Amino acid sequence: MDAKEIKRLLHRLQSGDIEIDAAMERLKNLPFEEVGCATVDHHRGLRQGFPEVILGDGKTTEQIERIIAAMLAMGSNILVTRLEETKSIKLKQSFPSAAYHSDARCLTIEQKPVEIKGKGKILVVSAGTSDIPVAAEALVTARMMGNEVEHLYDVGVAGIHRLLARRELLQTASVIVVVAGMEGALPSVVAGMVGRPVIGVPTSVGYGASFGGIAALLGMLNSCAAGVTVVNIDNGFGAAYAASLMNRVEYL
After folding, report:
1. Contact, 44 vs 100, CB < 8 A?
2. What is the mean pLDDT of residues 51-59?
3. Residue 125: helix, strand or coil by DSSP?
4. pLDDT reported for residue 158
5. How many angstroms separate the Cα of 127 from the Cα of each of 56, 159, 244?
6. Are 248 and 118 in contact (CB under 8 A)?
7. Among 111, 129, 247, 130, which Cα is nearest to 177's?
8. Mean pLDDT (whole number) for 121-127
9. DSSP codes joined into one string, 20-75
10. Using 50, 70 and 90 to split pLDDT, how confident is the model at 192?
């Protein structure tokens, strides 16, 4: 439940469209609700502007079902990240309106239209095709958090002319999320071309000496281009969340 929903409920109460007991029923599980396997934070949207996001990795299908049901009952849209496709099949049987985004390994349920809260566009750029799963996670997250989003895939430094040919697109973005494995050089290149916040996402893509993404992480942390912020390895979700905060029209 977010600030707008609470205001709407209070206006209904003030106008007599809803009884006090019914309003209390709607509010009784704030700020959180125990569902056995989890304590669902229903105030997350009120505090931060975005509802709680469910990490699918490590949870059983039944646990995810309980959390989703509790959030839907409070009027929230749903985003589940790092979800195996086998679990998504079972969840879609329980929640027919759910959509599974296989490239991003995310499941979404939109029981109300996603309101655009961003002042501009978030552009998600990937260095290679192998980086797309992490980039797609960022793309889905940014869209669910109320942003206009666009992507630009497979424009890494091995063929830098592919990126240079899209300079106009880079300039149209308000925030740019750049996803890269190997040596992680692409965020530095992009940040040197634009006057926009650039969020680097190192991926675990690479050969032995990439050390599961540590080489890309260190490369991005040591960027010579100003204005590069770096999140953890393979953390497309975290990058999109940060980009959404940067792109938001107003703060709470």
Report:
1. no
2. 93
3. strand
4. 92
5. 26, 10, 21
6. yes
7. 247
8. 97
9. HHHHHHHHTT-SEEE-SS-EEETTHHHHHSS---EE-TT--HHHHHHHHHHHHHTT
10. very high
Q: Which amino acid is at 250?
A: E
The CA-atom distances, in angstroms, between 33 and each of 43, 55, 56, 68 are 10, 17, 19, 12
User: CA angle 121-250-39, nearest 5°?
Assistant: 95
Average pLDDT, the chain: 91
201 neighbors 231 (Cβ within 8 angstroms): yes
- Which strand (E) or helix (H) includes residue 99? strand 99-101
Q: How far is CA 9 from CA 14, 16, 24, in A?
A: 9, 11, 10
Q: How far apart are CA 144 and CA 240, in angstroms?
A: 10
Among 38-42, 56-60, 151-155, 206-210, the least confident range: 38-42
- Six-digit token pair at 54? 């469910």
Residue 80: how many other CB atoms lie within 10 Å? 24
At residue 153, φ and ψ (nearest 5 deg) are: -110, 150
User: Encoding tokens for residue 62?
Assistant: 């039944």
Beta bridge partners of 54: 80
| Residues 185, 181: Cα–Cα separation, whole Å | 8
pTM: 0.86
Let me know how many helices (H) and strands (E) the chain has, helices first: 11, 11
pLDDT of residue 32: 74
Q: In this prediction, what percent of the chain has a pLDDT beyond 90?
A: 73
